[in-house]
């Protein structure tokens, strides 16, 4: 066991859920910063995403109202009391949604109040407004929350506790790293709240850490908090781990009636799940004994959206059939621009095809202005400033290719050209897939890639391929080879994209829930 900063030895907590995954446009602080949990900000359905482009930069303009909220109230005399109510999270953001902005401010207000589910004799009314100052350095954003106003009243077993805002403080500092496909963040929280009550005052102090990420297929936020409550005649120390996981999964559903015009379709299931675990020790001596452990959760119903399973009879029997059908269902491959008959799976995939699939898979924002190329004038194409001489805006995939280049995922081949229609090599595909996760740093401390033919890996690809192998995104064949210089087939490409989505759905989510809690041991 690990010793708490407050001096008490506490046992490790077991945490909830390894969950499937979904698109992460949840926001930092979606469970608040008070040791409670919400049901989680719901993720957009596929139809929602197709209708609107996700925000980038210092996004934060979201308002979540009437979320179910649970929190343990610690002031009542040595035994925590569970509060269930509602929370509103209201964010105003005057600047910062444009990635060119370097600094700005916004406000975040948390309003917590009782609901019909609140137990008799228990009440919590909290209205706290944070000023958030932020600044950007490259792809990283540093945010500092300070209290602008704070009112709070707790009622526990008939006793009223009122915040003394002049003697209380609450600060949060968060750093976010915005990569093409995932935004990672970590932060610290520090609170000292003084409550006035009959017979004196009670001080509640909390310090802890915040970890989370947002992606197109999963989002989670986990806090690891140490708290102490000091009252005139007793004190309590506790360890608390609140967590929320938001996810989306894809399942194929076969139709049961025989006399129906289609065999079945995909069902996209969106999950929200939250839980918090705690372990407490109370003093003085008459309360000693084994530390008290507890857990509470918020159960949530699933949302469903039906997705079309296109008729891909030409691919039936192919080993990549399930992979390609899933990508068509999610419109990562668009049947309108890429009909199945023009997508032979055993032929090499070109760079433009692969990069377009990758951009759609991670929901990389594209410039709407680039989706519709300028119309010719006097039967001549409109002159534009070309990023590459072989990449013209009259291509239907131009906006996606510009997006992957602007995001640093894919560049030309060193000769000043993009070569969109040349076949992509396996090492190019692996490198760009890894870069979409922003995890290149994980390859820095691996001197040699774990492949028998690692000598064939180009020097510029070695680091990213090391990282991709380390996280299990790629693996050698039965002979230990990677074949980095070979061209990638479409079948291999759709399998790789699906593997990327599964990694975002599962492995990342597990690392930010169970693995964080295990680290406490």
Features:
disordered N terminus; 521 residues; two-stranded antiparallel sheet; 9 helices; 15-stranded antiparallel beta sheet; alpha+beta
Question: Can you offer a commentary on this structure?
Answer:
- The protein has a 15-stranded antiparallel beta sheet that branches. Strands 1-2 form a two-stranded antiparallel ribbon.
- The termini are close together.
- α2 (321-329) packs across α8, α3 (351-361) packs across α5 and α3 (351-361) packs parallel to α6.
- It has helices at residues 46-51, 321-329, 351-361, 368-371, 398-406, 426-437, 459-470, 490-511, 514-519; strands spanning 2-3, 9-10, 37-38, 63-73, 81-93, 103-114, 122-137, 140-156, 159-163, 169-178, 182-197, 200-215, 218-230, 235-254, 264-283, 292-298, 303-307.
- The protein has 521 residues and is of the alpha+beta class.
- The protein is elongated and about 80 Å long.
């Amino acid at each position: 066991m690990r010793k708490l900063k407050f001096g008490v030895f506490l046992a490790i907590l077991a945490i909830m859920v390894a969950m499937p995954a979904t698109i992460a446009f949840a926001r930092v602080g979606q469970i608040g910063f008070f040791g409670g949990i919400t049901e989680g900000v719901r993720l957009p359905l596929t139809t929602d995403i197709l209708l609107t482009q996700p925000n980038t930069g210092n996004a934060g303009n979201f308002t979540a109202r009437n979320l179910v909220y649970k929190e343990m109230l610690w002031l009542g005399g040595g035994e925590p009391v569970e509060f269930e109510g509602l929370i509103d999270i209201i964010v105003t953001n005057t600047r910062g949604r444009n990635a060119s902005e370097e600094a700005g401010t916004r406000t975040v207000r948390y309003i917590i109040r009782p609901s019909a589910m609140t137990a008799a004799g228990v009440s919590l009314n909290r209205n706290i407004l944070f000023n958030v100052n932020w600044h950007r350095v490259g792809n990283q954003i540093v945010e500092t929350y300070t209290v602008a106003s704070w009112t709070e009243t707790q009622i526990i077993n008939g006793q009223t506790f009122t915040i003394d805002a002049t003697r209380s403080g609450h600060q949060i500092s968060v750093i976010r790293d915005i990569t093409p496909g995932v935004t990672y963040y970590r932060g610290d929280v520090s609170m000292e709240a003084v409550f006035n009550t009959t017979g004196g005052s009670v001080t509640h102090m909390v310090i802890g850490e915040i970890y989370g990420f947002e992606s197109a297929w999963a989002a989670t936020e986990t806090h690891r908090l140490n708290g102490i409550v000091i009252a005139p005649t007793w004190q309590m120390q506790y360890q608390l781990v609140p967590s929320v996981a938001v996810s989306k999964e894809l399942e194929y559903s076969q139709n049961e009636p025989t006399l129906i015009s289609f065999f079945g379709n995909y069902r996209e299931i969106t999950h929200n799940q939250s839980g918090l675990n705690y372990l407490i020790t109370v003093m003085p001596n008459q309360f000693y004994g084994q530390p008290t452990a507890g857990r509470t959760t918020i159960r949530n119903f699933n949302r469903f959206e039906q997705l079309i399973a296109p008729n891909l009879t030409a691919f039936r029997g192919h080993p990549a059939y399930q992979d390609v059908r899933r990508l068509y269902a999610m419109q990562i491959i668009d049947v309108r621009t890429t009909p199945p008959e023009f997508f032979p799976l055993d032929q090499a995939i070109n760079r433009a095809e692969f990069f377009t699939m990758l951009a759609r898979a991670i929901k990389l924002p594209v410039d709407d202005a680039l989706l519709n190329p300028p119309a010719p004038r006097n039967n001549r194409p409109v002159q534009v400033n070309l990023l590459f001489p072989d990449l013209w805006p009259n291509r239907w995939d131009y906006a996606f290719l510009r997006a992957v280049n602007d995001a640093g995922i894919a560049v030309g081949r060193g000769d000043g050209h993009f070569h969109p229609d040349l076949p992509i090599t396996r090492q190019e595909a692996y490198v760009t897939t890894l870069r979409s996760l922003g995890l290149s740093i994980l390859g820095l401390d691996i001197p040699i890639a774990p492949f028998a033919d690692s000598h064939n890996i180009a020097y510029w690809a070695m680091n990213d391929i090391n990282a991709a192998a380390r996280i299990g995104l790629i693996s050698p064949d039965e002979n230990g080879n990677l074949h980095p210089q070979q061209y990638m087939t479409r079948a291999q490409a759709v399998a790789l994209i699906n593997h990327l989505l599964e990694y975002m759905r599962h492995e990342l989510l597990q690392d930010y829930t169970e693995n964080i809690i295990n680290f406490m041991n």
